[in-house]
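Lab notebook page, bench 4
Experiment: in silico fold of construct C2
Operator: M.H.
Input chain length: 151 residues
Purpose: comparison with the prior construct
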Amino acid sequence: MASTITAGSLTVKITEAITLNGSDMGSTNTFTVGAINEINQRIVSLDSGNLRTLFEFGTVIGSGTFVKAEVQYVRITNKDDTNAVSLNLATAVSNCWVDVAAGQSLMVSRAVSTAQGVASGTVGLPVLADLVKITGYSANSIDLDCYIALA
């Protein structure tokens, strides 16, 4: 059976709008990711005080697991109006915690070789590794808008 899905291009536009002292200091950046043939979007309700898996990445598709080589774009938006969420981007050997404030988003361009692991407190050349999992944690119950695009 051949697929009847026609791949499309995902266009992402980021706009900052501000005027300072009468001067427009805003900016718009747009990028396009071609050959997208799968989108997954869902609202995830995190319960307070528990670490919850948002995405897993592997070599085969499974329940909640996406093929890491096909991941082209990931966005997680904190839909809470007050509380931050802590997101953990994990590789097989390291992980990185990122706080995302209320109403803010975290974007990841790919799951392959995007996470940076630093072996010591000294920042040197980055060590890139494939993502294996993204989890979320908040001391409060919050909602996240989770969006992923795959080729």
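Observations: The two ends are 19 Å apart (CA to CA). Residues 113 and 130 are 4 Å apart (CA to CA).
Next step: discuss at group meeting.
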